Amino acid sequence: MTDQWLMRVEGGLAAHFKMPNGPSKPGVHWAIGLKNGEQTYKVLVKALFADDATPETKKNQEYQAQVAMQYLNDKLNSGWQPTQEMEHTIYISNPLGTSHVSPNKPWWKLW
């Protein structure tokens, strides 16, 4: 078996996911295809949005998929194998170097 893993997004389902201790959270359930040699696997990664995620981050599906694949790459590099079943849940925050800036409102608008 080679150490080179190939990955691709096979699908994604945007939804609100029930949380055990509170209201549901928006996110995407990504189906990521993994291939190593002739062996192929499909792994599901539930990517929930962090509380501070901007609308731009929530719309950027390419960024979200990259984060999910980077998570799986880190898991593989730490010794995890796709044959080991586990629930994969991550939180998507804003890309590094971005910050949420509220639009400027005139001083007299209170709402």
In which range does the helix fraction lie?
10-25%
Mean pLDDT: 88
Q: Please summarize the sheet with the most strands.
A: 4 strands, mixed
Strand percentage lies at 35-45%
Give the SSE layout.
Layout: E1 6-19, E2 22-36, E3 39-49, H1 55-59, H2 61-77, E4 88-92
Parallel strand pairs: 3-4
Antiparallel strand pairs: 1-2, 2-3
Explain what the structure shows:
The protein is α+β, with helices and mostly antiparallel strands. The protein has one domain (6-92). Helices cover 20% and strands 41% of the residues. The protein is built from 2 helices and 4 strands. It has a 4-stranded mixed sheet with strand order 1-2-3-4, with helices on one face. The protein is globular, with a radius of gyration of 17 Å. The chain starts with 5 loop residues before the first strand and ends in a 19-residue tail after the last strand. The mean pLDDT is 88.
Brief overview, please?
This protein is of the alpha+beta class. It is built from two helices and four strands, in the order E-E-E-H-H-E.
Descriptive keywords:
20% helix; globular; 111 residues; four-stranded mixed beta sheet; alpha+beta
